[in-house]
Design goal:
Elements (H helix, E strand, L loop, with lengths): L12 H15 L6 H22 L5 H23 L7 H24 L5 H25 L8 H4 L4 E4 L4 E5 L4 H17 L4 H14 L2 H17 L6 H23 L6 H7 L4 H14 L2 H6 L6 H7 L9 H5 L6 H27 L7 H9 L9 H24 L1
Antiparallel strand pairs: 1-2
Length: 409
């Protein structure tokens, strides 16, 4: 009898890290997930420390500069706030969040570094986005038939979540809210437009974004599509190519005009017309910075200390909304760095993104339009989603360097 020798299943460290990152991105914001995500963060810390001890620290210049600068600025902010005797300041949560930011950036780089030569990062994001999009479409179809999957106990906190009020229904699949779905979906829309040219998937995901009514997702997906339509060659015939682009852009502009001029009473459309949560998302953090004293403007109030600072000083904000009154710590990424690590921290963050932009070539540079928009509207840097964005950027950088090496040979 011939026996077949089968290899035992080998689980690589990089696969464990990738699974932890993707899992945290999918459950972020869930009511039950805080402690689970904390465990995942500590596990990532432990795994990466063991990897560094075993294999040494492999980093590029901008990664080392950014991580070192963030650590140094974090310590300076800690010293300033501690020795100044500010009662609001919590040293432990500040240092923890500084280390999280360093972890996110290095982890994103490490994932891309270890996945050179394959498209695992883009493919995983693609399948997560596509499955979530179909789940949202499924939710939307059943809701119109009077079946609310989010009202079933198990589904409401796992597979078919939704913002369900008397005024509107916003499905978000297995994401806790539509904007979290949009943050991952936009990566895949970029991938399908600029790398794979898969317009069918783009259509499916745009439908899901429309059903979820994520203004962040709808607006940024539209901008990505316009950039793609204007910069990519659709057909070989330049006249037909120009005609198709002109028709597409005009149709989209006509849709916007109709949308802006809408006079009905649909709560979802009216919500987006009013800018949704743009004031809370973008303007609020700059308003907070304007209220800081000169010392805090330079040294920062400390990461993860925004809520304590606002409560301590009883600050009332013009750009507050229901969401930011409940979660006072929320701020878009640029504004959050500016408030918590001061002006030097903001300069360091912008400089890091600029250095990555310079390293990217061709159509990959368009990704920075997306990440800039998101950094002005979403709190990326305080969540695991930032790992995903950094890994995507480095995946593109490594792809280009491999392509250049092959050409040189």
């Amino acid at each position: 009898m011939i026996t077949e020798n089968r290899r035992p299943l080998q689980i690589k460290v990089i696969d464990v890290i990738w699974v932890l990152v993707c899992f945290c991105c999918c459950i972020s914001g869930d009511k039950w997930a805080d402690s689970v995500i904390s465990v995942c963060y500590y596990a990532l810390f432990g795994i990466l420390i063991l990897v560094v001890i075993k294999n040494g620290l492999s980093i590029t210049g901008e990664i080392g500069t950014f991580c070192g600068s963030v650590f140094l600025l974090g310590m300076i902010s800690a010293i300033y706030n501690t020795f100044s005797g500010f009662s609001y300041f919590n040293l432990f949560v500040h240092i923890r969040q500084v280390l999280y930011l360093i972890l996110f950036v290095y982890c994103g780089y490490y994932l891309a570094y270890k996945n050179q030569g394959n498209s695992l990062i883009f493919k995983t994001v693609h399948y997560i986005s596509l499955i979530a999009a179909w789940a949202i479409i499924f939710q939307g179809v059943l809701q119109r038939a009077g079946i609310y999957l989010n009202r079933i106990t198990f589904f409401s906190e796992t597979l078919f979540q939704a913002t369900d009020t008397s005024r509107y229904f916003r499905p978000s699949g297995f994401f806790s809210e539509p904007s979290y779905f949009a943050e991952i979906c936009l990566i895949d829309i970029f991938y399908c437009l600029f790398k794979k040219r898969n317009l069918k998937v783009v259509l499916i995901e745009v439908i899901a974004l429309a059903l979820s009514t994520s203004s962040l997702g709808i607006v940024f997906a539209y901008l990505l599509f316009v950039i793609w339509a204007c910069t990519q060659k659709i057909t070989r015939n330049r006249y037909i190519d120009f005609l198709i682009k002109a028709i597409m852009i005009n149709v989209l502009l006509a849709a916007i005009i109709l949308f802006v001029g809408y006079q009905g009473d649909n709560a979802i459309i009216l919500r987006i017309q009013k800018g949704a949560t743009i004031k809370q998302r973008t303007l609020r953090s700059f308003e907070i910075f304007g209220k800081l004293d000169d010392g805090h403007k330079f040294f920062g109030i400390g990461m993860q200390n925004l809520t304590r600072y606002l409560n301590e000083h009883s600050i009332t904000l013009v750009n507050d909304g229901v969401d930011t009154i409940v979660n006072k710590e929320f701020a878009q990424s640029f504004g959050y760095i500016l408030c918590t690590l001061g002006i030097p921290g903001a300069i360091t963050f912008v400089g890091f993104l600029v250095s990555l932009f310079i390293k990217c070539k061709g159509k990959n540079k368009y990704f920075f339009i997306l990440i800039t928009e998101l950094c002005l509207t979403a709190s990326l840097i305080t969540r695991m989603i930032f790992v995903l964005y950094i890994s995507v950027i480095y995946q593109m950088i490594f792809e280009e360097s491999e392509g250049n090496s092959i050409q040189n040979e």
